[in-house]
Amino acid sequence: MFPFGNRHTFQTNLPDNPNEHGARMDLRDVQRQVDAYIGQFKEGYFPPLVNLARLTEEVGELARELNHRYGPKTKKPGEPDQDVALELADIVFVCVVLANQMGLDLQDAIERTLRKYEVRDADRWERK
Questions:
Q1: Which of 50, 45, 30, 40 is nearest to 93 (CA)?
Q2: Which pTM does this prediction carry?
Q3: 93-97 contact pairs (CB < 8 A, 24+)
Q4: What CA–CA distance (Å, rounded) separates 91 from 79?
Q5: Sign of CA dihedral 16, 128, 84, 102
Q6: Could you give the CA distance from residue 42 to residue 31 in angstroms, rounded to a whole number?
Q7: 22's torsion region: left (phi>0), alpha (psi -120 to 50) or beta?
Q8: Cβ pair 106, 95 in contact under 8 A
Q9: Cα dihedral angle (74, 83, 12, 120), rounded to 10 degrees?
Q10: Radius of gyration for the alpha carbons in the chain, expressed in angstroms and rounded
Q11: What letter would DSSP give residue 74?
């Protein structure tokens, strides 16, 4: 198990009103916002395999930072820490891009995935 194992629980430092409208965005809002952003450029969406390569690059950046923090790899002298939250957000962004170009509803997909885990792992772990 990880050295920090089951000792941590999810705690967020998100503000109560994280955007100027006073409401949290759901994944459909994120998908619309990403589509509007990409839609302003003539090039539009890159092909799916290009975006898969981008996703791999972003996951590699996260892996590098986590390996520096929790693994045996030390940083080079003067190499700054990266913001893990932003690295994760880069991954989410590219996942949203892929979903958009394939016409997938990520809100529905994450709701179905959460239900899947709740059923599949209902008795798998010891409850608190």
A1: 30
A2: 0.80
A3: 93/34, 94/51, 94/54, 94/55, 94/58, 95/55, 96/27, 96/30, 96/31, 96/34, 97/34, 97/38, 97/45, 97/46, 97/51, 97/54
A4: 22
A5: negative
A6: 19
A7: left
A8: yes
A9: -70
A10: 18
A11: P
| pLDDT at residue number 11 | 53
The model's pLDDT over 99-126, given as tens digits with 9 standing for 90+, comes to 999 999 999 999 999 999 999 988 888 8
Q: Give residue 108's identity as a one-letter amino acid code.
A: D
Tokens of 102: 């394939």
Q: Using one digit for the tens of pLDDT, what is the confidence trace for 44-94?
A: 999 999 999 999 999 999 999 999 999 998 899 999 999 999 999 999 999
Tell which residue, 91, 102, 85, has the closest CA to residue 35: 102
Amino acid residing at 125: W
Q: Which of these, 62, 67, 121, lies nearest to 95 by C-alpha position?
A: 62
- Domains of the chain (ranges; CATH) run 25-120 (1.10.287.1080)
> Rounded to an integer, what distance in angstroms lies between the CA atom of residue 17 and that of residue 11?
16
In the numeric block, which tokens belong to residue 59? 């996951």
Structure tokens at 28: 């459909």
